[in-house]
Design a protein that fits this description.
binds S-adenosylmethionine, Rossmann fold, alpha/beta
Length: 238
């Protein structure tokens, strides 16, 4: 129990990456609890989790508007969907949508916030994906999950996110970007260009890597497309 308490104290003190419990396999379960614990404690205090915007992310909305994105019943998934604002936005575009998160309290609160929702909310771990989800989604949205993970977890998370994209599917990644200033101690740990590039695979092509900002904070909006066959991004349907 001492180890568990120490791990929690380290996570709550917003420690540096090197001593964050997610970097230590012995305390990974505890580290996974970190998200759940924050949802639970924030709800109990009547406060917000730090990433709660109360609305879909503005860069997701602008991307959808700029590209006239419509779902028409196609399948979408939102990774680490938290309290549900992004996934509700995607469902409202007409996608048959799953939102998943490792934190049961996030999923419960999202369902409570949107009781009439058409979204299929699921408690699930990005590191243990349902095999039927692999290559199954016409739209995959990842917003700020990878940046909440340290060290070796990041590249595994990036690979897992990319694995969800179906042929002719699109991946939209939103994340904090490492700017000119040295990054603050995480979490979050902003993504660098190499990490954004790593979402691409041999058959998942970058379409747009945009360097944007929110309230002066550097952000990425990166779009990737998986061709249906040996074709090019001219096939892109979103
Ligand atoms: C920084 S929050 C962002 C939440 C949401 N995407 C948003 O933008 O409001 C990161 C989210 O990822 C979830 N998460 C972390 N690790 C995960 C994993 N391995 N599988 C699924 N979700 C995970 C956390 O519970 C949390 O809700």
């Amino acid at each position: 129990m001492l180890v568990r308490r120490e791990a929690r104290e380290r996570s709550e003190s917003k420690s540096n990456e090197g001593d964050h419990p997610l970097t230590d396999p012995r305390t990974r379960d505890e580290a996974t609890d970190w998200f759940e614990q924050l949802y639970v404690s924030s709800e109990a205090r009547g406060s917000r989790v730090p990433w709660d915007r109360g609305a879909p992310h503005r860069h997701l909305v602008s991307w959808a508007q700029e590209n006239s994105v419509t779902g028409s019943g196609r399948r979408a998934v939102v990774v680490g969907c938290g309290l549900g604002d992004d996934v509700e936005f995607i469902a409202a575009l007409g996608f048959d949508t799953i939102g998943f998160d490792i934190a049961p309290s996030a999923i419960r609160q999202a369902q409570q916030r949107f009781p009439q929702s058409a979204v299929n909310y699921v408690v699930a771990d990005l590191f243990g994906l349902d095999p039927t989800w692999l290559g199954a989604f016409d739209l995959v949205v990842e917003n700020q999950t990878v940046q909440a993970l340290p060290g070796d977890y990041r590249i595994r998370a990036i690979s897992a996110v990319s694995s969800l994209v179906a042929p002719s599917g699109t991946l939209t990644v939103l994340a904090a970007r490492i700017g000119d200033a040295p990054p603050a101690a995480g979490p979050p740990w902003p993504l660098n260009h190499e990490e954004i590039d790593a979402f691409a695979t041999v058959d998942l092509e970058p379409v747009e890597i945009a360097e944007l900002s929110v309230d002066g904070n550097p952000r990425w909006r990166a779009i990737f497309f998986r061709p249906a066959g040996p074709a090019s991004r001219s096939d892109m349907s979103i």
